[in-house]
Amino acid sequence: MNRELLETADIDKELIAVLYYLPDNKYTPWVTWAARKDSPQNTFWGHYFQTLEDAQADFDMRAFERSHKLNKVLDALEAPEESRRDIYRKFRRY
After folding, report:
1. Structural domain total, the chain
2. Which of the 8 DSSP states describes residue 51?
3. How far apart are CA 20 and CA 7, in angstroms?
4. Global pTM?
5. Are the C-beta atoms of 88 and 57 separated by less than 8 Å?
6. What is the per-residue pLDDT for 88?
7. Could you please report the per-residue DSSP string of 3-37?
8. Quick check: 57 pLDDT over 60?
9. 19 neighbors 30 (Cβ within 8 angstroms)
10. Residue 59 is part of which domain span?
11. CA dihedral of residues 53, 58, 63, 66 (deg, nearest 10)
12. Quick check: 6 pLDDT over 80?
């Protein structure tokens, strides 16, 4: 399978989220998967998308939903649900 890794993010101590471009897939060329940190080439739980924007949003949510430390910070701040993804994107850049 021909695939290009675009981004990775820690989910927890054992898992990462990955965002790939699949140039040979005409209909859903963008995919997010989960993978184990000790074998990132072995991916599972794929979510396939027609646009990069949808795949990026799913990737952000996959990393965000399982990020225990950031969730604790956001809970302490009592951030509204709709703003959590924006806050996460700012934190992830650092």
Report:
1. 1
2. S
3. 7
4. 0.68
5. no
6. 63
7. -EEEEEEE-SSSEEEEEEE-TT-SS--EEEEEEET
8. yes
9. yes
10. 4-92
11. 160
12. yes
Cα(21)–Cα(54) distance, rounded to whole angstroms? 12
Find the angle CA(88)-CA(43)-CA(34) to the nearest 5 degrees: 20
> Which tokens go with 12?
């927890």
Lookup: tokens for 32: 């997010």
Question: What are the tokens at 37?
Answer: 């940190």
Strand pairing report for 30-36 and 4-10: unpaired
> Degrees (nearest 5) of the Cα angle 35, 24, 45?
25
For the stretch 42-78, what's the b/e string if a residue is b when 16 or more beta carbons lie within 10 angstroms of its beta carbon? ebeeebbbeeeeebbebbbbbbbebbeebeeebeeee
Selection from 89, 27, 29 nearest residue 19 by Cα: 29
Q: Which two tokens stand for residue 47?
A: 């979510």
Q: In this predicted structure, what is the pLDDT of residue 77?
A: 67
How far is residue 88 from each of residues 1, 80, 85, measured CA to CA in Å? 32, 12, 5
